[in-house]
Each structure stands twice: as structure tokens, then as C-alpha cells.
Amino acid sequence: MKEITINPVTRIEGHAKVRINLDDNDNVESAHFQVVELRGFEKFLIGSAVEEAPRITPRICGICPTSHHIAAAKACDQIFGAEPTDTGKKLRELMMLGQFIHSHSLHFFMLASPDFLIGHDAPAEERNIVGLVKKSPDLAKKAISARKFGQRLTEALGGKPIHPTTCIPGGISNSLTEQKRAELLEMARPTLDIAREGWSVARGIMNNTDTDFGAVETAFMGIEKNGRFSVYDGDVSILSKENVKTGSFSGVEYPDYLNEYSEDWSYLKFTRLYNGEYYRVGPLARLNIAEEMGTPEADSGLDEYRETFGRFTQATLAYNPARYLEFLSCCERAVSLLADPSICGTDTRTPAEGVVNERGVGIIEAPRGTLIHDYSVDENGFITKCNLIVATCQNNYGMDRGVEDVAGKVVENGNLSESAANKIEMVIRAYDPCISCATHAIGKMPLNIEFCRNRNII
Amino acid sequence: MKIAIEELAGCSGCTIAVLDLHEVILDILNEAEIVYSPVIMDVKEPPDEIDIAFVTGAVRNEENMERLKNIRKKAKTLVALGTCACYGGISGLSMLSSNEEIFNTVYRGVDTVKEDGVIPTDVPPFTYRAFAVGDLVKMDYYITGCPPKEQYLKQIIPALLKGDIAELSRKSVCSECDRKMGSVEGWHLKRRYEGKPDREHCLLGQGYLCLGPVTFGRCNAACPKNNIPCHGCNGPSLDILREPCRDLYNMMVRRISDLTDRPEKEIEKELYDVSHTMYPFTIGSLIMEDKENSKIRDLVQERSR
Ligand code: SF4
Ligand code: SF4
Ligand code: SF4
């Protein structure tokens, strides 16, 4: 049997490849999205003091570290019985918005858009942010500045733009000063202008979206708060593939709804609903689930989005405009939170005393979809068991089937041209998968080697 | 000038840290050409002639190993970028269990999977342990940090591209911290959730395990300034690296003992979960493990038994 591989899949976070198996007539027999890495956080967190989880788990992913930081912190709130103060919650939400603004603008402008703006047939060397700098320097500069605001926001609240550290059981360790608020607001407004302007680009992409591309039919899952798009809190809703609400959960009961399994050819697990149905998460899911974005401009954008795709859509490439609308909404929400002086409140944290519950489940919406951190601890708060369910596992089936769908269309006489390979990768990229998140490892019994070396630390 | 970024087992945070140079990236692109970086561009294999390659992440499987050897061959100058590459980073925590235990937990041991779940084998096999890249091939430079901070990358990268080395501070996190040393009485070690640290005084003096004294600086003491004790994400301080008989653990114990006037033995009794609180970023490093008084060997053996 002949095999074609695309290795590595590029412009995504982490390591993955695509393997296409051909039959004797050179037709596509099967194709898979294959993840070649695993780290094992679920194992190596065991034994750790649970309050360290918010500092360790961000290292699962350098693109959405805040999501892991906050999901772990929410689980700790429950374990220590410390519900965060109002200001604490707002600051955490604002930090999440920083995460979305950076991650979504990174994906939209720098990872996915080169396919749309430069062209998916363009030479590989040009189809990237560097090419975008050459082709549309103005747009590239705006993309850089939008992302910069997202990272500055995270840094201001989390201590660092990548791997923030400030969320602790019961809230957040530090308050926002009036001066810092003014500074951030000054950056937030022009970022909102960029988001607003960019909507016309996104709308253009939307009008040219092929709704059959990477087709797959699934149920959807995502958080909503009273029908609104929400990134920090709310209940998780499940919609069947016929658009019927079939479930809802908010914490420890999640294993009643979801199960996971693995395949021999990938380190990445698959998640499905308890009844065996597959589902997807992320921007497409959230926009299918939410009634409204809850911010004015994103809401009017949502109307246009729904004119194109309907109230409920399975179109894989609609992930891209959906992501854009979320970016717009997060910019609006950041401006409104920063415009309110109460965000500078100093009561940022409810004191924690000791373990109140021996289990805590933190659920939030990460940029790529619903994220679940589940910790069981002993009476002193040391982790005895841990389960992490990340967006990319939940989208694994969608990506895997999408890859096969497109492979079937673009493989010709047993060959895959470079631009056809990129089409397959476009399906994967639509999900903005995060392989580091998805793979959580290694080794034992070190070999003792005599070691003495001058390290050139610079 | 052709530059490349190769990603091994890590989180891509180091590549994002390079993007976090923001508009400075545009200046860099005027001077240098990025020829390979899978997170941001489509070129699938590093080309042959690379002037400077940055490697991020640790080595945990055979594919990582091959990629590392390959980029070493192709690059004139090879730079370990970030704490994973320099010291194994957080991936090193996997040293606390065997590969089998990890697979069993992930694919069979969590609440949402079945006990007879498939353990993948048609994938690049794990190496028997995690490695820092410098423990496997010769590196020309090391840039520490999880990830390295913007302010320093702005000084380091443009200089490297010109063939220079920026002269930068090599001090510890404490030297960048603005907290005052006060008198220390009735010291006892606190968990991080306990109490509210005051903003004026040294966290270590207040009972929080702050790794500032044993950690390489250049983060502007980001955590202590936000009322969070340092976790050591920049890796060991220079004095620890240089002296064979200095290790994170014994230096911390000595430091606390000096601060509190209590014998080292008593301090040691208060410490808990040393692998996650003191070694989370260095446990995969042979350099750190080979120190005569390192606790790493004990920690690894204890858990793998
Ligand atoms: S050093 Fe930190 S930021 Fe860099 S790859 Fe490793 S975990 Fe990620
Ligand atoms: S031990 Fe921590 S808090 Fe104290 S001076 Fe050093 S960095 Fe600052
Ligand atoms: S204070 Fe410590 S943990 Fe925080 S960023 Fe600096 S080195 Fe890392």
C-alpha cells in the first residue's frame, strides 16, 4: 500500500502530520490527522500541591497559557471553597480577553489568513506573516499591534504575557492601578478600531467560503451565559447535529456527558458524547450555541454572519469568520471593562484556608474551545488524580474526517501537489488546533554521564 | 542572514516570545530572512544553509532527537532558546514516572477513558527519558527563560544577527526585586494559598517559598512584583551553574536558614513536594542532576520505583 505524508503540518501550534493511505488504484483509501507528541501532564501533576497547578499547566501551551492558568485556578477556588470577589472575577475575565485578542488575531491574521489573503496556491515561502508584511504591510502592522495589545493586557494582569502567574485560589494576587488602567484603555481603543476595520476583510472571506470544504456533521459544545457568548463563566451547553439542546453541565458532572478514547496512530485522544455522537468546540460551536455576542458591533456582525451561514451551521471554514467575530467582541468587551473605574478595586481575593472539597473542576472557554481541568486532592490539597480535556481532543474527529474528505478530492493519480497538501492543512488550520495542549511526558532512570561543560549563557 | 526556529517538545511559547518582539520583528525581517519555522510558515524541512537556528523545547521522542541532530548539522550557530531547551523545562517533570505509567494514566487511567483504552504504538517512540538539548548536541549559546522575556530578546536577537553578543545582566531574580528584607520572626513555611503576603517585604522572609535567590534573573522579578513567589522558570542562577557543589535545594535551604537563624535540618522538615516546587523546570537536565548534592536522582528514583 502506498502512503503519502504531510509532515509537519505547518502554521499550527505543535507537532502533527497527515497520513494518506492509497489503494492499489491510487485512490484515497483512508486519511488521518496524526499527532506525534505527548507530554503526560495528567500523570506528572500527581503529587503536586494543587495550588501549583495554575503555575505548571500554562506550560501546556504557549499560545493559550492563560486558559490553562484560569481553568486550574477555578478548580482551586472550589477545592479551597473560596469564591472569587467581584473584582477578582472581572480581572480574570479581562485576562481571558487578553488571551483571546492575542490568540485570535495571531490565528486570523498570521496563521490562517495567508491562505486567503495571499492565496492558498502561492509558493510555500510566501504564504505566511512575512509574505503578508510584503503584500499588505498596513494590515500586517495592524495585526501586530492588535496582538501586542492582547499580550500587554495579559502581562499587566498576569505578570507575564506568556505563562501568567497571578491567579490564585479565591481570585488574583494583585489589583490594577488607575494609571495602568488608563494606559491599557489607551491601547484598547485603537485595537477596537482595527478589529472594526478588519471585519470587512473577514466578511470578504466569509462570502467566498466554500461550505462543503472539510465537511463533517457533528454536534456542538460550548459555554454560554444566559444565551450570551462568554469566555470566563457560564454553563456548558450541548447541541445535537440537528440543532437541539441535549445537555448542559457546569462542573463535576462532566464525565456523565463525555468520554474519550484513543487510536493506535495518534497520541491525541478523541472525545465524543456519551451516546457516541461526535461534537466540535471552538468559535463555530460557540456561535451556533450563543443567541448573541452581547456587544453591539459584534452583534451586528453576527447578523451578517447568520445571513450567510444560517442560524446553525456545520461549515468547517466558517470557523474563520466566527473566530473573527469573537475577536471583535472581545475587543469591545475589553474596552468596556477598562472604561469602568471599578475594575481598579483592591478587594481582588477571597482568603483561602484549607481544603474544603476534595475535587474541583474548572471549566472555561479557551480560544480553541471548551477546556476542562479536573483535580482530585487529598485532605492536604495534594493532587491524587487529574484529568485535562482540551479543545483539540474534542475537535480531533472533525479534523480527522475533514482531512479525509479533502484528501479524497485533491489527491490526483496517487500524487499530492504542494498546493493540494496546503488545502488539506487549511481544514486543520480552520480548527486552529493546539497540539501542545492536546498532548500531555517521559522517561525514567537517567543514565549518568560525566558532565562538565562551559555553558555560553547569553 | 538565514535564520530558523526548530520546535521540539515544548509549548511553542518560545516562538510566541519571538513574535512578542512585535514591531521589532519588522526590523529583524529587514536584516534577516526566516527560512524555517513550522509554527508560522509552511517550509517543511530546514534548508541546508542556516546561519542561526534557534531550538526550543526538550527532547522526549525519537523524532525530536532526529530533528535536533539534523538542525545541528545544518546550522552554523545553534542557540538553545528557552528553559526547556536549556534545562529540560516543565517536560522534565515526566522524569517522575516511567513511560508506561504515563501512557497508562493518559489512555486508561482518567475518568473519561475506558480501562482497556488503546495505547498508541504507530507513532514516534518515546526516548527513555527527557533531555535538555545541550545534553545531547553541542550548543553555541543558551538563552534561558520560560519563555525568554521580550525586553531581553530585543537586546539579544538583533545583536546575534549582527554577530555580536549583548552584554546583559547575569544576576538573580532577587537582584531585580524591589522588596525589602525585614526582621524575620516565628518563620514557618506557608503554602501559596495561605494568608495574603504584604507587598513591602521579601516573600521568603514571610514564609513563602520564593526561588528568587537561586534563579537567573531577566524577568524583572515579574512574579514577586505581582505578589507571587518566584517559581524558578528562568532556570538556575549563574553561581549554581558554575559551582559543582551548589544545587537549587541546598542553596535554598542554606538561604532560608541564614534568614531565619534556624538550623538547616529544621528547614528541610518544612519543605514539601520538592519536585514540583523546586525542580519543575530543571529536573530533565543532566547538568543539574549530576551535581553531587542534587536531589533530582532521589526524586526520580523514588517515583519510578
Ligand atoms: S521554555 Fe517555557 S515557553 Fe519555552 S517551550 Fe518550554 S514551556 Fe514553552
Ligand atoms: S526571595 Fe523573592 S521576594 Fe525575596 S527578595 Fe528574592 S525575589 Fe524578592
Ligand atoms: S519571577 Fe521567577 S517564576 Fe516569575 S518569571 Fe521570573 S524567574 Fe520566572
Automatic annotation (TrEMBL), chain A:
Cofactors named for this entry: Ni(2+); Fe cation
InterPro entries: Ni-dep_hyd_lsu, Ni-dep_hyd_lsu_Ni_BS, NiFe-Hase_large
Binding positions (Mg(2+)): 42, 388, 440
Binding positions for Fe cation per the UniProt entry: 64, 437
GO MF term list: ferredoxin hydrogenase activity; nickel cation binding
Record Pfam families: NiFeSe_Hases (PF00374)
Domain of life the protein comes from: Archaea
Sites where the protein binds Ni(2+): 61, 64, 434
UniProt record similarity statement: Belongs to the [NiFe]/[NiFeSe] hydrogenase large subunit family.
Alphabetized PANTHER family for the sequence: COENZYME F420 HYDROGENASE, SUBUNIT ALPHA, F420-NON-REDUCING HYDROGENASE VHU SUBUNIT A
Name of the molecule in the record: Ni/Fe hydrogenase subunit alpha
Organism expressing this protein natively: Methanochimaera problematica
